[in-house]
Amino acid sequence: MPLEPAHSSVPPLNSQQVLQPESATVQETETVDVSSAALWRHVGAPESSPRYRRCANLTTAAACNWLVNEYDNAGGSPPLCRCCRLTRTLPDLSLPNAELWWLRIEMAKRRLVSSLIGLGLPVLSKQSEDAERGLVFDLLRSPPEGPHVITGHADGVITLDVEEADDAWREKRRASLNEPYRTLLGHFRHECGHYYWQRLVENSQWHATYREIFGDEREDYAASLKRHYDNGPPADWGQRFVSSYASSHSWEDWAETWAHYLHLVDTLDTARSFGLDGERVELHYERFTPDVLGEHDDERADQFLDVINGWMELTGVLNELSRSMGVPDFYPFVLSAPVVKKLHLVHRVIAGAASTSQAVLALAEAA
Ligand SMILES: [Zn+2]
Ligand SMILES: [Zn+2]
Q: What is the value of pTM for the model shown?
């Protein structure tokens, strides 16, 4: 089954396009309870099919366009959708720009969560669904007197410094850290990589393989980061890591690689939903071949490589288009053979966690 388009951006509010919560796909809906306009069903669906309510954040600054199954009580009353219920803490919305920043943050989060659901990964609220292993987001604003909020993850809690939603502030930070790419969505994809490492890799069947490929995470974390910020990355980082920050510690390497896996799966999915794919472009890279993956037991590894090679060709063209417009490269990264091997482990971990992630491979079949 191919991955369905998972666009989770906010359509015009008079639109009846909404995000269907079980499959993370966009659907047309119509109201079935006209008297209260409270219940919705997909256009053309039989009467016995599920009915939904709109997310309670439809009418807040978050402007959420997701649905909640009428029998799903975990989102409270009025119900919050699977994405909105993950937000545990909000900053003071009466402060300047706070509502605009919240909208930008929730839009990025909806894009993230629709991808995670589409991949079949567990996405449950630590607050209302799975206190031990669930996930929540604390969106925090630094007080003027400090200390400054630090974006990060700890035990299922993703903290975001909401100032990252201020374009000017984020760009300044990006330039000062010499990063080629810094976005809200990138932050979320990176931080959830730490969360899923804890859930899917730590003490699992993958842990030993993880250490072989990503190095030993027991190396002193604080000292490693300090070394990175004091001395910079090793000179050859580009041959071994997807970003210079990934070279700071094994956990950061995993989170950065995980984020890139989500970048490429989501972007290829979007491209394909509009009839675009890397295989039809007139740009030819030297393709990655099976030997870059080393030893593994993935019988469908060739299809994984097709996805990666399609990504290289598509982003090559998109980068050329960016240059034609005089804007920064669409995908300002280079995938080396060791990085492809790391991406393959992320892919296998996700495939092992979710049978529906076979859908990722359909990207290759459709190419
Ligand atoms: Zn919502
Ligand atoms: Zn990190």
A: 0.90
Euclidean distance between CA atoms 20 and 123, whole angstroms:
15
Ligand 2 centre to CA of 152 (Å) is 6
Q: Which residues contact 38 (CB under 8 A, 6 or more apart)?
A: 31, 53
Query: Radius of gyration (Cα) for the chain, nearest Å?
Result: 21
64 with 83: CB under 8 angstroms?
A: yes
Distance (Å, whole) CA 274 – CA 237: 35
Q: Which range, of 61-65, 169-173, 302-306, 362-366, averages the lowest pLDDT?
A: 362-366
Ligand at minimal distance from the CA of 186 is 2
Which ligand number lies closest to the CA of residue 152?
2
Q: Are 112 and 192 in contact (CB under 8 A)?
A: yes
How far is Cα 84 from Cα 67, in angstroms, rounded to an integer? 11
Q: How many CA atoms lie within 13 A of 41 on its CB side?
A: 11
296-345 pLDDT, tens digit each: 999 999 999 999 999 999 999 999 999 999 999 999 999 999 999 999 99
Closest among 60, 53, 3 to 29, alpha carbons compared: 53
Neighbours of ion ligand 1 (CB under 5 A): 55, 57, 64, 66, 81, 84
